[in-house]
């Protein structure tokens, strides 16, 4: 099983510009670790340090126990990495671009072809004879993602893997990641909370180059109390009919004649009572949080200064 | 720690992989890079340019007539080839700059680096593969000039008179010169982030800069032993039947203007020195370079 680790890892760009400060964590086995944080938090920098695209100012990064600064080939041997926007040479066709990756990872010619076919199927790649330079952004991203899968490495480092993809492609990739995490170790930075919610088991929240929180997704979700719900009734409801709901809610506003947004204190007790009150108004079709729990967690964590966290 | 699950795997299963050697990876990178170069506009542009200049040269010579050409070439096929190949050094420099001037910077200025540098390949191996490809493409460009020169030699002097052995030596010198010029281009490319600037600086440094400097130091009566283009003169001079290493041309009042043409051993020594300095330096810089963009 694969592993990745950062140990007291720090990186500064120029004098007094710390991008990462004393980062330490380690994951091994199979599963998916989400890496969250605002732009500039240091997510991509961490991934670059892990694969040796950057040199640490202090500390070490390890892939499968090997420091890429000491042994790049050994460290990256069983790792697929999608960082920033990888671009194979535009003159190559899709098969050639993937073939080079497969050969570099020690696949035989037959196995390269088998792997290309597997990736083609998994990611609905464009025709293999098509030149990379002629592909759309989404197609190129899928080819880049396919390149990380060539040879079936045990660790996958993915920096915004669905960036540039359309909704259908995102669903495809999310499903793939969900399958991959069963026997691969995924470390995935993302701004897509839905993606992280659906795919990841563990989370690392980062801001200003420091880890704010590391925990399992279900534990993080359990700590968050969303303070807004949207309720949808079976039939139109008049504003005066919502008077009983207003007695418990901080605010009630109409989104349409059937849909209402209710703000409250976030407690489970109030939530239960609000649902009961709404059911008294009219049959309820849907009663759900307005945002993803992780999004709430993100908003709760990130605005805090690093020293508070 | 994340626990492994027992659900069906997301992949087709373990894919057999062997510990690929540096040599195998070097071959992969060389083939990949060659495939890329041979499909670029710059390859066809430069190939067309060299072919055009060579074809025009040959056309003018044919138009002058066989007798005239033979007279001006001292009735020597070797002399003819030497003069025809006088610009080979320039073609080498241009090709080296076009294919080497951005060979490394492309990894740090475009997304190419995020594709290649995350593979389990040591950077010196990546560099070596690209170096081989750039040198081979440079020789392919120069080969066009050689083909035209051979065609002219056979037309004006007959196939029997072509000095094949010396011509092969000339190609060998051109190959060493290409290695030296590509070494310089790679070094520039390792220093500079912009691919276009890398190409331009290589041409400016190797051709404009050194040619000017060579002329200036010769005016001062100094042999330009430090200049790579000067060393490149050996590509043609090896075929020169009336070769003179140093010429003293009287300019009046007892003054002389001295000019030098590199001997083959001297030229090879200079080229070897450039390779010995610039190639390891390129490798060092490339190894140290970070993807900060």
Describe it.
The complex is a heterodimer of chains A (309) and B (293). In chain A, 35% of the residues lie in helices and 26% in strands. Chain A is an alpha/beta fold and 309 residues long. Chain B is mostly helical and 293 residues long. Chain B has one domain. Classes of the chains: A alpha/beta (309), B mainly alpha (293). At the A-B interface, helix 2, strand 5, helix 3, helix 4 and helix 5 of A face helix 1 and helix 7 of B.
Oligomer type? heterodimer
Number of domains of chain A: 2
Average residue pLDDT of chain A: 89
Strand fraction of chain B equals under 5%
Largest sheet, spatial ordering of strands of chain B: 1-2
Largest sheet of chain B: 2 strands, antiparallel
Number of helices of chain B: 13
Distance N to C terminus of chain B: 32 Å
Order of helix and strand elements from N to C terminus of chain A = EEEHEHEHHHEHEHEEHEHEEHEH
Low-confidence stretches of chain A: 305-309
What number of structural domains do the residues of chain B give?
1
Rg for CA atoms of chain A: 23 Å
Instruction: Report, as a whole number of angstroms, the end-to-end distance of chain A.
Output: 32 Å
Largest sheet of chain A: 6 strands, mixed
* Helicity range of chain B: 55-70%
Average pLDDT over all residues of chain B: 89
Task: Present the secondary structure layout.
The complex is a heterodimer of chains A (309) and B (293).
Chain A: E1 3-12, E2 18-28, E3 31-36, H1 43-51, E4 58-63, H2 72-76, E5 79-82, H3 94-104, H4 109-123, H5 137-149, E6 155-159, H6 167-180, E7 185-189, H7 193-199, E8 202-207, E9 210-216, H8 217-223, E10 228-233, H9 243-246, E11 251-254, E12 259-263, H10 268-281, E13 284-289, H11 293-301
Parallel strand pairs in A: 3-7, 3-8, 5-6, 6-7
Antiparallel strand pairs in A: 1-2, 1-4, 8-9, 10-12, 10-13, 11-12
Chain B: H1 22-37, H2 41-64, H3 66-72, H4 77-84, H5 88-100, H6 106-109, H7 112-116, H8 123-157, H9 164-191, H10 195-219, H11 228-232, H12 234-237, E1 246-252, E2 255-260, H13 264-288
Antiparallel strand pairs in B: 1-2
Helix pairs in contact in B: 1-8, 2-5, 2-8, 4-8, 5-8, 5-9, 5-10, 8-9, 9-10, 9-13
């Amino acid at each position: 099983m694969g592993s990745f680790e950062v140990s007291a890892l720090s990186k500064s760009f120029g004098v007094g510009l710390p991008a990462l400060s004393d980062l330490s964590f380690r994951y091994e086995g199979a599963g998916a670790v989400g890496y969250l944080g605002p732009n500039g938090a240091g997510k991509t920098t961490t991934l670059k340090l892990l694969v040796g695209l950057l040199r640490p100012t202090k500390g070490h990064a390890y892939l499968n126990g090997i420091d890429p600064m000491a042994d790049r080939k050994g460290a990256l041997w069983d790792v697929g990495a999608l960082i920033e926007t990888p671009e194979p040479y535009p003159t190559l066709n899709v098969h050639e671009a993937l073939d080079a990756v497969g050969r570099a990872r020690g696949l035989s010619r037959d196995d390269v072809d088998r792997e290309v076919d597997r990736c083609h199927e998994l990611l609905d790649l464009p025709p293999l004879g098509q030149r990379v330079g002629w592909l759309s952004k989404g197609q190129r991203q899928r080819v880049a993602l396919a390149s990380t899968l060539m040879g079936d490495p045990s660790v996958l480092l993915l920096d915004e893997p669905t960036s540039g993809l359309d909704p259908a492609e995102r669903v495809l990739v999310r499903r793939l990641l969900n399958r991959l995490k069963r026997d691969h170790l995924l470390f995935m930075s993302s701004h897509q909370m839905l993606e992280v919610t659906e795919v990841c088991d563990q989370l690392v929240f980062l801001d200003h180059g420091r880890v704010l929180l590391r925990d399992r997704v279900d534990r993080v979700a359990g700590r968050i109390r969303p303070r807004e719900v949207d309720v949808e009734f079976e039939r139109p409801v008049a504003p005066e009919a919502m008077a009983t709901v207003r007695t418990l809610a901080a605010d009630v506003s109409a989104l349409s004649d059937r849909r209402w947004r209710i703000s409250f204190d976030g407690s489970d007790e109030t939530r239960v009572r609000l649902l009961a009150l709404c059911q008294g108004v009219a049959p309820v079709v849907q009663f759900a949080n307005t945002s993803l729990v992780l999004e709430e967690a993100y908003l709760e964590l990130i605005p805090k200064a690093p020293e508070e966290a | 720690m994340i626990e492994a699950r027992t659900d069906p795997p997301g992949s087709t299963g373990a894919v057999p992989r062997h510990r690929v050697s540096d040599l195998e990876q070097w071959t992969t990178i060389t083939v990949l890079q060659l495939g890329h170069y041979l499909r670029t506009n710059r390859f066809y542009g430069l190939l067309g340019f060299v072919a055009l200049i060579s074809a025009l040269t040959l056309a003018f010579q044919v138009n002058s007539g066989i007798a005239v050409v033979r007279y001006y070439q001292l009735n020597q096929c070797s002399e003819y080839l030497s003069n025809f190949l006088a610009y080979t050094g320039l073609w080498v420099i241009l090709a080296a700059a076009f294919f080497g001037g951005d060979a490394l910077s492309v990894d740090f200025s475009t997304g190419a680096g995020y594709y290649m540098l995350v593979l389990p390949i040591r950077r010196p191996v990546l560099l070596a593969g690209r170096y081989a490809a750039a040198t081979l493409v440079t020789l392919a460009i120069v080969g066009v000039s050689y083909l035209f020169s051979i065609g002219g030699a056979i037309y004006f002097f007959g196939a029997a008179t072509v000095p094949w052995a010396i011509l092969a030596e000339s190609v060998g010198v051109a190959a060493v010169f290409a290695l030296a010029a590509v070494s310089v281009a790679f070094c520039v490319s390792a220093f500079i982030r912009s691919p276009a600037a890398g190409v331009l600086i290589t041409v400016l440094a190797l051709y404009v800069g050194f040619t000017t400097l060579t002329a200036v130091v010769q005016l001062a009566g100094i042999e330009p032993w430090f200049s790579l283009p000067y060393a490149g003169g050996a590509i043609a001079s090896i075929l020169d039947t009336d070769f003179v290493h140093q010429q003293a041309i009287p300019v009046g009042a007892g003054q002389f203007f001295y000019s030098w043409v590199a001997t083959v051993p001297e030229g090879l020594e200079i080229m070897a020195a450039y390779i010995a300095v610039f190639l390891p330096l390129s490798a060092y810089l490339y190894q140290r370079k970070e993807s900060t963009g």
